[in-house]
Amino acid sequence: MIVRSLDETNGTDRDVQTENWRSRRVILAKEKVGFSFHETVLYAGTETRMWYANHVELVHCIEGEAELVNEETGESHFITPGTLYLLDGHEHHIIRPKTDFRVLCVFNPPVTGREVHDENGVYPLLTEDGA
Q: What InterPro entries does UniProt report for this protein, alphabetically (predicted)?
């Protein structure tokens, strides 16, 4: 059994911050449960382009508001608390938070915590053995 609070991740290698967002990775690949779980806050007024070519991501909004744009279709969605989206087709997408946008995210395959978005917004597919 794993019991962990968000506060335990603060200031550790599980607490990843950029100028656009902060992600606290509560469960990672090293826990060997088949997914990773994160609490992420994307900051108001920013724009983040992402494309999870190697992962499926579920995002559940628990606070704030943002525009989600599917770059492939041009379709736009307004995401508010209680709304979730699933990137099951590896969609290129943009997030434009109108307010600080707090979400809970599940990744499959799980991330290790060492991933960094590349120039295309992609996380590489890393494993716990460092590959």
A: Ectoine_synth, RmlC-like_jellyroll, RmlC_Cupin_sf
